[in-house]
Amino acid sequence: MANHVxxxxxxxxxxxxxxxxxxxxxxxLFRSLxxxxxxxxxxxWMQNVGAGxxxxxxxxxxxxxxxxxxxxxxxxxxxxxxxxxxxDMRDRRRLLLFTQSWMVAASATLGVLALMNxxxxxxxxxxxxxxxxxxxxxxxxxxxxxxxxxxxQRHASAVAxxxxxxxxxxAMGPALGGMVVAAAGAGWSFLLNAASFFGVIxxxxxxxxxxxxxxxxxxxxxxxxxxxxxxxxxxQVKSVLIRTGAFSLGATSLLALLPVICQPYGARGYGFLxxxxxxGALAGAAILPRFRLRYSVDGLVIGATVLFAGMTFAAGWxxxxxxxxxxxxxxxxxxxxxxxxxxxxxxxxxPSWMRARALSMYLLVLQGGMALGSGVWGxxxxxxxxxxxxxxxxxxxxxxxxxxxxxxxxxxxxxxSPAVVRD
Length: 423
Fold this sequence. Notes:
Structural class: mainly alpha
Number of domains: 1
Strand content: under 5%
């Protein structure tokens, strides 16, 4: 990241032009995948709305509702580290074709069962879990291919654009999902999600990936252990993981309990509130480059975390729908400020031969913390009420900031690792 870095006269201008926010879209390969990914992300958000809302119809328990998000994240604990190792050991293109096809099958089957009124709360959780397995197997390889489809000088901008694309989908998908669920039922949101993967599958099928030297080890276990040894000798990587874990546990509470918060407003209200969150994240992505030039990484993360904690607390006590929309918009603004910093650092903290395994550890900490948090805050909400659970979650976010004292993320520590093939 380029906080507080100065360039010789003329050099900074050239770097800014090469690394302009939208420059990666000028490259056909990246542009094609980016468009396909936005469509796929949109389908995923439609699925999330359908699953969350369907559970509120099948069970009145806040714990069961929060477990929908947990079921999708639990696979992180089971398969993300092997997924990272496989993504470094095998052809990432073929691995992605398999995982995308897996998610098509899981979404389509759940959609058919829902249309047949054959879904129970546990059926929904099982298929959400299976979809999560595919997503987790997909993620390390997906994020690791970014340097392969964009020129090196545009890598950081491409990572930011991927985050922006996810938030474009976050802005559109929930609203579309809410309308589909209200008009036709949750089953159609699942089927539309299954269809949304085919653009990415078509891209991967046609992509001719450059040959890469595989890792010397043939054992997934050995590859994972090698990844742990690398992290143990890389203080900057450990700092990213610790800081991410400190944030993720409390961060998930707002989205996990949102279906309960907005039950009085129906499926469309739920979708619209998620859209407000996505629009806030999109606005945050637009203004983030300016803030990165003015503030350090730590300064951005501290300010955004305090703001997100405040909105998490407010969501439990604010009842008028208009004010909830403002709370969710502001929360989305803060959310992207935090995760964009972590994501860019995670994508650039390791050389290419270690990238997928390092990303798998980052995803384990991020999504694993969110899965644990979903269960914890759901249990607290069932026992003490949603406002109390969100208040404790806001406090947990603020307490997590104390990790900055020993694990700072500064420009001097976080230099981009060269993308080279291992000898």
